[in-house]
Each structure stands twice: as C-alpha cells, then as structure tokens.
Specification:
By secondary structure, the protein is an alpha+beta fold. Helices cover 23% and strands 15% of the residues. The chain is built from 7 helices and 9 strands. The strands form 2 sheets. Strands 1, 4, 5, 6, 7, 8 and 9 form a 7-stranded mixed β-sheet that branches. The longest helix is centred in the N-terminal third of the chain and has 18 residues, at 11-28.
Amino acid sequence: MSRAPETTVPSGHRTVASVVVTLLALVGCGSSDADVAGAAVEDYTGKTEADPNAAPKPADPTTFGAQVTTTPEPDAATTEADGGPDGSTPEAGAPWTCTGSYGTKKASSGDYYITAFGCWKDAAGVSHGDAADNCIPTCLAQAKAAGLCLPGDTGKNCEERVTWFTADAARFGCLARLKVTNPANGKSVIAVALDYGPSCTTVEAKVKKEVLDASGRVDRFLFGSDQGVLDRSLVHVTEVAASTPLGPTTP
C-alpha cells in the first residue's frame, strides 16, 4: 500500500540529533566528563566515534537505516500455515524448488519439515479432523483397490481406517510406504502416501524447503503434538517395501 510523500528528517540525522540531545542531558544532569566520554556514541552505520574502524554490528530491527528481515510472529495454533519458528535452517543439499501446485521433487537429503492434516483416529479410537481439509485423499481409489479401505468408504472413512498416512504422493507415488523418523528422539513410524500436497505456494514457500504433510496421529507419535510448517520440525524420510506394516516401528 503506497502513502503520500511526507517531509521527514533523514533517519541518520534523527539518530545523531537524538544522541546529541542525550549527551547534553547527561551533562546537564550533573554527569561527569568520564560519564560522557564512556558513553557509546553511535550513528546508524553501527560504528562508534571512539573506534571508526570497528566492524558494523548485526542489523537490529530498531536501528535506523538497517535493512532488516524479520520472521512474522506465528499464531498460537499450529497448522500447515502457521506455527512457531525454532531458529533452525534448511539442511545442506540440492536447493528447494517447487514450481507447480505440489512438490514433485524429493529432498536429496531425505530431510523434510513435517505438518499435520486429515482425518484420523487416536489409540483410543477417537476420531480427529482438520477443519481446513476435506478428508478426500487423491489416492482414494487406489487405497480401495489395494484393500487399505473398503469399497464403500468415504474419504473420511478411508483416512480414519488407515490413520497412519501422509500426503506427498506427488513426490513418492500413491500408496508408497514411508518410514518417517524424528531424529531428535529416534522415534519412527511407517505411513502410507494417500494424498497430494502440501501446497508449494502457501506452505513450502514459507520455509523454502520440502514439507511432509502427515496425519495428526503421525505428528503426535513423533513429536507429541500437531506440527505447523513454521515449527520447522525436522523428520527424515526413507521409502520402504509396500508390505511394511503401518504404525510405529520397533527399535
């Protein structure tokens, strides 16, 4: 959104002016010469008068003239589109690229950020859902043909029956079996790819990294709670045989 031009004092001048006022205030309030000499007099370049050759300090969002990039604060709830940054950075490997609706390129390192979606059941058989998802997996027909779901199952019925599932079928193929491991605690689970996604533009573009969308059952087993993309919760993914049973793996 554009604004009408305003007449303002350049930021550097404002900063220097404010420092002069501060020093005058110190002297006027009975400060000694030593107090004044010991004060760091800074301009917006981050250098001091006492040491003009000092290296610029890191950009600070409150420093005038600094080009600062900040991460938007997350919402309280964690979903595909929000979460809480943990300060981690994408791992080394081939650069992330995603030019279509969904990611089709596998992470060369096997590492992904995980998110939660879909309809599933917990260990007590209680149903859970994702208000932002219609629970109609892209691979529904294949799941029925393979016997994972019953012929008359709706998408919701199918996802709840399978429970241990992921999206990312555009990367791995419908019904691919994936071993998903949380490297921080060593927990692993076998899940099946039932759907496409997550979105390149609204999910992966936020972290510039491949994302594995998984059922809440998978997230909660590995991390104890649903994860959002900005949580940057790292998992390692390997493809396993189609006959591998779904669910937690034994050490």
